[in-house]
Automatic annotation (TrEMBL):
InterPro entries, alphabetized: Beta-lactam/transpept, Beta-lactam/transpept-like, PASTA_dom, PBP_dimer, PBP_dimer_sf, PCN-bd_Tpept
Record keywords, A-Z: Membrane
Region (Disordered): 700-728
PROSITE patterns: PASTA (PS51178)
Signal peptide positions on this chain: none
Compartments where found: Membrane
Family: Belongs to the transpeptidase family.
Composition skew (Acidic residues), residue ranges: 712-728
A Pfam family the protein falls into: PBP_dimer
Name of the protein in question: Penicillin-binding protein
Residue ranges annotated for the PASTA domain, each copy included: 584-644
Annotated source species: Solibacillus faecavium
Length: 728
């Protein structure tokens, strides 16, 4: 017996030693399983990265919302006097239908599981997500048993239908394992989904059986990593100008579609981009068919806007003779006949007048002078027939048709061959930017918000120099003559105070069957490709309106000019670009004032006709804006930052840009309401800021001064009802 019990004791002792040493029993790791039993925690949710405009204004971000859940299993209720599940399903469905976008019958169906199913709780799909705090409170006030609202995150688009086909949208999705995340489904939200998506963190700790924190246990925190923030080249103010004008024209003329893009020709930065029909990314209302960004993914026949590049090629190759004459009206290409929009022509006219009248036959004669090989080389240098390389996917390249002689001739006036609006914008930068063609781009930078690291920092890219600086200047003057010349057919695009250069276009649109073209005043694609100010363009813009419903006295340029004129006028004023009548004023180059005393610097600036604005009590200057060596015109503001309390200046007539600079330097809690120029401020001039009370500054956009020109004689109307396709 002694030997038996002694053996059992040794065996048991050996087992204790073995478990102590290895921590494993029958393949189970005891320490890991103990931690799993007593360790608990919860997920620290990461934010999806923000999408912001060039000035840091939010375009898309995550915001707090709530998710609706209904517990329908009776096992959830332990005390019948305090039910924890949905008791009256019909009444619950009726009440919930008042607060979520789902029919009462469908809600009731969700609350009533199939026979035999042991469902514990149900959700309501998209209708039960993204619930606001206000709606949450109203639902909670009903005190419906079994109805629970969990905190959630929703992708929020504060500007509504704002460049929607560019920005796209993201939705929360749940995978097969029950994990939920916001996923980009369209536009930049989809293209940059990986960069925007954050990585959730975790908080874990040890607890006892009653869920109390164990003494001396450590909390382990794995911080969430928010997704990268994407800063666009888009300017919110200019985009608002564009969206407002397009919506107004869309409501008035009911066109089939509209496309517009505004860019900085010196850098290639896209400042605004929009199309109609559009949609609200918060609700997807309006997103019925077209998911494409038409600016880059769809091609069009450009019509007479393409004549800008034909003439630029002729000038640069030494084949432009503006005063030479040709016979207008029609031009024979073997058995085919190319006609002007005025099919009888204007007799013998100069090439200059022919261009101003948008004559097709002027372009065909120019091709004979240049030769196809020369012309084709310029088309390629301007980037047509190939992708621009913009930082967006699925870009179309267009086709330059030249297989048959007729196609070569029709290409000169923008028919038969196809381009994208972004190609037209890239090409026109060469004319606006003294021959240097700039690649368009929409991503300014991508920033890691967790570290501040700039992951991507975009820079302007020169794509080539298809024409010389001298040619570009002559081409701008020629394009301006279509707006201001006696025979010009683009007079509707004149803007008060600024000189515009550009070219109208009218193209036939293919029939829905794909065979032949639609015909008629209300069946064309009307467009304008222009720039301003003509002498040194700061903006280039393309706008097209397809099949607008025109009144008997209206022409295609009416809806197009309403968008172009409004956007360019307001944008130039917002950018503080001086009108043409004061363009040739003396400028002053400011120095580096940091470290100097404000008294002497302010006196000097005032003597030079500049407006110094002091931020602080005075004394030694620590910051300034603009930077040293910047040339400013008289009346321009120079911000000087010093230490000490800040006295509020008069913001009257300040632009939004100047107000943003002041807010950034002063760090004051300024709340900006509206766009354009300052109309009023909540704290009067001369007030010394001593607390964090917000300063509300209200702005208004400039009034649109452009008025519709009076009806002109039939000859002028005929000139503006532009070209048709070649006739057999």
């Amino acid at each position: 017996m002694f030997l038996i019990f002694g053996g059992l004791f040794l065996l048991l002792y050996w087992r204790f030693v073995s478990i102590q040493a290895t921590g494993v029993v029958k393949g189970h790791e005891l320490e890991a399983e103990a931690l799993a039993r007593y360790e608990t925690g919860y997920v620290l949710s990461a934010d999806r990265g923000k999408i912001l405009d060039r000035n840091g204004n939010v375009i898309a971000e995550d915001t707090l919302s709530y998710r609706l859940v209904a517990v329908i299993n009776e096992s959830a209720t332990e005390n019948k006097n305090n039910p924890r599940h949905v008791v009256d399903k019909a009444e619950t469905a009726k009440l919930l239908a008042q607060f979520i976008p789902m029919d009462e019958e469908k809600i009731l169906a969700r609350l009533t599981p199939k026979s035999g199913a042991n469902t514990y709780q149900v959700e309501f799909g998209l209708a039960g997500r993204g619930i606001s705090h206000e709606v949450k409170k109203k639902i909670e006030e009903l005190k419906l048993p079994g109805i629970i609202l969990y905190s959630d995150k929703k992708r929020y688009y504060p500007n509504g239908a704002f460049a929607s086909h560019l920005i796209g949208f993201a939705l929360r999705e749940t995978d097969d394992n029950g994990n939920s995340s916001v996923v980009g489904k369209m536009g930049l939200e989809s293209i940059y989904n990986e960069q925007l998506t954050g990585k959730d963190g975790k908080l874990s700790y040890q607890r006892d059986a009653r869920n109390y924190l164990l003494p001396n246990s450590d909390k382990i925190i794995q911080d969430a990593q928010d997704g990268n923030d994407i800063y666009l080249t888009i300017d919110k103010t200019i985009q608002n100008f564009l969206d407002e004008a397009m919506s107004r024209v869309n409501d008035q003329y009911k066109p089939q579609s509209m496309v517009a893009v505004v860019a900085n020709p010196k850098t290639g930065e896209i400042l605004a981009m929009s199309q109609r029909p559009t949609f609200n990314p918060d609700t997807r209302e309006g997103l019925d068919g077209n998911w494409l960004n038409d600016v880059i993914e769809n091609t069009i026949e450009p019509g007479s806007t393409f004549k800008a590049f034909t003439v630029a090629a002729a000038i640069d190759s030494g084949n432009w003779y503006p005063n030479a004459e040709y016979q207008s009206g029609q031009y024979k290409v073997y058995k085919d006949t190319i006609r002007d929009h005025n099919r009888y022509g204007w007799g013998k006219i100069s090439y200059l007048v022919g261009f101003q009248r948008s004559s097709n036959t002027a372009m065909t004669n120019l091709l004979d002078i240049m030769g196809w090989e020369t012309y084709e080389s310029y088309i390629k240098e301007f980037g047509f027939g190939q992708k621009t390389g913009i930082d967006l996917p699925n870009e179309a390249s267009g086709i330059i048709n030249s297989r048959y002689p007729l196609e070569k001739y029709t290409t000169t006036f923008g028919q038969g061959s196809t381009v994208t609006p972004i190609q037209l914008i890239q090409g026109i930068t060469a004319i606006a930017n003294n021959g240097e063609m700039m690649q368009p781009y929409v991503i300014d930078k991508i920033v890691n918000p967790n570290t501040g690291e700039i992951v991507v920092d975009s820079e302007p890219t020169k794509k080539g120099q298809p024409i010389s600086a001298d040619t570009a200047k002559k081409a701008r003057e020629l394009l301006a003559s279509t707006v201001y010349g006696e025979a010009g057919n683009a007079k509707r695009f004149q803007i008060e105070g600024y000189k515009v250069a550009g070219k109208t276009g009218t193209a036939q649109m293919p029939k829905a069957s794909g065979v032949g073209y639609d015909w008629g005043k209300n069946e064309f694609l009307y467009s304008f490709l222009g720039m301003a100010p003509m002498e040194d363009p700061e903006l280039v813009m393309f706008i097209s309106v397809a099949k607008p419903k025109l009144a008997d006295t209206e022409i295609g340029s009416d809806p197009v000019s309403q968008v172009f004129n409004s956007v360019i006028l307001n944008s130039l004023k917002y950018m503080n670009i001086n009108p043409a009548d004061v363009a040739e004023v003396q400028t002053s180059k400011i120095e580096n004032y940091i470290g100097q005393q404000t008294d002497s610097v302010m006196t000097k600036l005032q003597a030079e006709g500049l407006q110094p604005v002091l931020i602080g009590q005075g004394g030694e200057i620590s910051e300034q804006f603009p930077a040293a060596d910047t040339s400013l015109t008289k009346g321009s503001i120079v911000f000087l930052k010093t230490n000490g309390d800040i006295t509020v200046p008069s913001f009257e007539s300040w632009s939004l840009r100047n107000l943003l600079v002041y807010k950034s330097l002063s760090k004051l809690p300024i709340e900006i309401v509206g766009e354009g120029y300052v109309e009023s401020q909540s704290i009067s001039q001369g007030t010394v800021i001593v607390d964090d009370a917000p300063i509300v500054v209200k702005l208004k956009t400039p009034e649109e001064k452009h008025s519709t020109p009076p009806a002109e004689d039939m000859e002028m109307v005929d000139e503006e009802i532009e070209e048709e396709l070649p006739q057999d």
